[in-house]
Design a protein that fits this description.
Elements lengths: L3 E6 L14 H12 L5 E3 L4 E7 L3 E7 L6 H12 L6 E11 L3 E5 L7 H10 L4 E8 L8 H5 L5 H22 L6 E3 L1
Parallel strand pairs: 1-4, 1-5, 5-7
Antiparallel strand pairs: 2-3, 3-4, 6-7, 6-8
Length: about 190
């Protein structure tokens, strides 16, 4: 039997959210899918855009179309359909509690105040693996949490994110190849 892995990027599906802090999970999965020459397909039964990869085991990339705070619905639907155990799920998401440019991986845990992770934990329990992408800046103290996560990255931040994409791809590769572990990268 082929084992499967699921890599989920969190974000909001409308174009107006492109380039926002909350959509960095979508952006990083888009870059990863392009590198792997994987094509996104709309899968309404999963409430997601899906791209399939074949490595030593089948890997599904997913971008929920439920909106960020309801991402657990998508993760549960895909995991149930393909019988993917929670430990074979990786979630790539923003974290404004981490300084911009910090990457932190973790194996399971609480939601840390992140509503997308809260939804996933509600539907799946706290066992998913995570890539937390730090989006915190001084700007965060000047606006509400919702305004901050929906704010656009500056040009300088976008350049830094482009530089980070290789490390994020390496982390996703490590997850796929069973070499994932909790760590912090700057």
């Amino acid at each position: 039997m082929i084992r499967m892995k699921l890599v989920v990027g969190l974000g909001n599906p409308e174009f107006r959210y492109d380039g926002t802090r909350h959509n960095v999970g979508f952006a990083m999965l888009d870059i990863y899918a392009k590198r792997e020459k994987a094509k996104w397909q709309d899968k309404p039964k999963f409430k997601a855009l899906i791209a399939d990869l074949m490595a030593d085991e089948k890997v599904i990339l997913a971008k929920p179309t439920t909106y960020y705070n309801l991402s657990g619905e998508t993760v549960r639907a895909i995991a149930d359909f393909y019988k993917i155990p929670v430990e074979n799920i990786l979630v790539v998401h923003d974290d404004y509690a981490l300084p911009f440019g910090t990457l932190r991986t973790r194996e399971q845990g609480s939601d840390g105040g992140n509503n997308g992770i809260k939804s996933i934990n509600t539907h799946m329990g706290p066992g998913t693996n995570r890539v937390r992408i730090g989006t915190g800046t001084d700007l965060r103290d000047q606006m509400s949490d919702s305004d901050y996560v929906l704010s656009k990255f500056s040009e300088a931040e976008l350049r830094d994110l482009i530089a980070m994409q290789h490390k994020i791809a390496e982390i996703i590769d490590d997850f796929i190849n069973n070499k994932f572990f909790a760590t912090t990268h700057k």
